[in-house]
From TrEMBL:
Residues binding substrate, per UniProt: 16-18, 41, 136, 218, 250, 262
Cofactor note: Binds 2 Zn(2+) ions per subunit.
Family label: Belongs to the metallo-dependent hydrolases superfamily. DHOase family. Class II DHOase subfamily.
A GO term, aspect molecular function: dihydroorotase activity
EC number: 3.5.2.3
Lineage: Bacteria, Pseudomonadati, Pseudomonadota, Alphaproteobacteria, Rhodobacterales
Cofactor: Zn(2+)
Protein name in UniProt: Dihydroorotase
Associated pathway: Pyrimidine metabolism; UMP biosynthesis via de novo pathway; (S)-dihydroorotate from bicarbonate: step 3/3
Annotated residues for binding of Zn(2+) 2: 99, 136, 174
UniProt-listed SUPFAM superfamilies: Metallo-dependent hydrolases
Sequence ranges assigned to domain Amidohydrolase-related in this UniProt record: 12-302
A Pfam family this chain is assigned to: Amidohydro_1
Transmembrane found in the keyword field: no
Length: 347
């Protein structure tokens, strides 16, 4: 008997679509999602409501009419962000969240926050208005080992900010550790996105037997015990955990370099990979919660009405290894196993 699973249309609560030729090249690969929270780390970053609205319009224009994706925009928090601008952009329905990057933590984060006291006013206004704050949860202190930066962030930044700002609704983005899982599972007013690739790879995939730049992303994949904790969290049915692919395309030239940049491009094959992961965990009945229900509930939105279907076939689904992007190519994330789950859209 053919195995299949029907889900409400999934949402992607953390997505990089870039701009210009890269946006044109990658947007359609997320076209089958319902909604996506669009990251604002363009160069220069998206810091005003007007910039977010213009970027939203460029994204819409890059999507074919039959595609279902609706971009949900975010503002990039800087030390000079005016609380009134954030409130206005939210009240006008332009933005759904604000993104906080510690300065220097990841790709295009130079304009992020150094001194967290400087954003206190914005965070208080957001708490009052119920606007979610999405955190890149890593400290940037060079003295902290890169594999410990998420755990250090929880103690040094996240927990103090949450205590100082009651009611602030936060999303710990792309958690990679059991420390992240435990912190989120033990608290309220907090959610966490988990990426597809962090359910599949650990740090050996990046570093053992040769350095594999297409598995390098931030936060960097950790040791196997952490990957297993993420798989337990994602498949637990706990509504605090939901899908944010963090699909983050870079030109191959920029990744296969002496100083390669961080990011995995997982948009094309994410749903096939997730079906396989949930099947392995005996949790296919919880896939819909993770991809289509929990995130919407956190963002106080209705789940999508329409459905997609995933069907397990004998022959693996064919995904491109690379896609063209202007004069460049972008490598599609290789999970390292055949993908028997085929996406049927509509269901
Ligand atoms: C992201 C990017 O390339 O914009 N990279 C990544 O490795 N995830 C930035 C981010 O989300 O940290
Ligand atoms: Zn990201």
């Amino acid at each position: 008997m053919t195995k299949s699973v029907t889900l409400r249309r999934p949402d992607d609560w953390h997505l990089h679509l870039r701009d210009g030729a890269m946006l044109q090249a990658v947007a359609s690969f997320s076209g089958h999602f319902g909604r996506a929270i669009i990251m604002p780390n363009l160069v220069p970053p998206v810091v005003t409501g007007a910039q977010a609205a213009a970027y939203r319009d460029r994204i819409r224009a890059a999507l074919a009419p039959e595609m279902t994706l609706r971009p949900l925009m975010t503002l990039y928090l800087t030390e000079t962000t005016d609380p009134a601008d954030v409130l206005a952009a939210h009240a006008q329905g332009i933005i759904s969240a604000v993104k906080l990057y510690p300065a220097g933590a990841t790709t295009n984060s130079a304009s992020g926050v150094r001194d967290f006291d400087k954003v206190r006013g914005v965070l208080e206004a957001m708490a009052q208005a119920g606007i979610p704050l999405c955190f890149h949860g890593e400290v940037t202190d060079p003295a902290v080992d890169i594999f410990d930066r998420e755990a250090a962030f929880i103690d040094r930044v996240l927990d103090p900010i949450r205590r100082a700002t009651p009611g602030l609704r936060v999303v710990m983005e792309h958690i990679t550790t059991s420390d992240g899982v435990d912190y989120v599972a033990g608290n309220d007013d907090i959610g966490a996105t988990i990426t597809t690739h962090h359910l599949v790879i650990n740090r050996n995939h990046i570093l053992a037997g040769g350095i594999r730049p297409h598995y390098y992303c931030l936060p960097v994949a950790k040791r196997e015990t952490h990957r297993l904790a993420l798989r337990r969290a994602a498949t637990s049915g706990d509504a605090r955990f939901f899908l944010g692919t963090d699909s983050a395309p870079h030109p191959d030239r920029a990744k296969e370099s002496a100083c390669g940049c961080a990011g995995c491009f997982t948009a094309p094959n994410t749903m096939s990979i997730l079906a396989q992961v949930f099947e392995e965990e005996g949790a296919l009945d919880r896939l819909e919660g993770f991809t289509s229900l929990h995130g919407a509930a956190f963002y106080r939105m209705e789940p999508n009405e329409d459905r997609i279907r995933l069907v397990r076939r004998e022959i693996p689904a064919a995904y491109p290894t690379h896609i063209p992007a202007g004069d460049e190519t972008v490598t599609v994330f290789d999970p390292g196993f055949p993908l028997y789950w085929h996406l049927e859209d509509p269901a």
